[in-house]
Amino acid sequence: MCRPGSWVRRRRGRFSGRGGSEPIGNTLLGKLAGVGAAALVERTAGPQISFALDIGQTAGRVVFRSRWQSGRRFELARLLGDRIILPRSGRLFAATRSHTYRQKMQRSFAAESLAPFGAVDEMLADDYSMENQQEAAEHFMVSELTAPCSSTTAG
């Protein structure tokens, strides 16, 4: 069985011509999710939850909760994971702060997709200092909380 995060890495390698351990850029992330890259850098805060509403096969809307680029990237990767794992059209896909299995799956998918476990672990090289964690987070364009979590949840 294929791990969902590896689906994104395979697509990332196919689109970029590079391996799956390189950071995924906003343009590619947007392309995979059907969203313009500009939506990831806007600084407007949304409602208390992030969601995607699919209105048929080719139309829909995404609303982000976070105003920060790293947060928006994580939210979009969560919504992408939800669409891949639980494909349904004309439905609402929510990324909430709850602790359901679905939300945990979304968070794991997003972390593995944006900051692959193996790549983060290799980059940290057993040095979990704040500076090294920050460097890994900046490299993968994720929150400082996502990069170290990626390597610790893999083991």
Q: What attributes does this structure have?
A:
globular, 8% strand, 155 residues, three-stranded antiparallel beta sheet, 3 strands, mainly alpha
Overview of this protein structure:
Helix content is 52%, strand content 8%. The protein has one domain. Helix 1 (4-16) runs parallel beside helix 4, helix 2 (26-33) runs parallel beside helix 3 and helix 3 (69-85) packs across helix 4. The two termini are 19 Å apart. It has 7 helices and 3 strands. The chain is globular. Mean pLDDT is 78; it is low at 14-18. It has helices spanning 4-16, 26-33, 69-85, 101-114, 117-124, 130-140, 146-154, and strands spanning 50-54, 60-63, 92-95. A hairpin with a 5-residue loop joins strand 1 (50-54) and strand 2 (60-63). Strands 2-1-3 form a 3-stranded antiparallel sheet, with helices on one face. It is mainly alpha-helical.
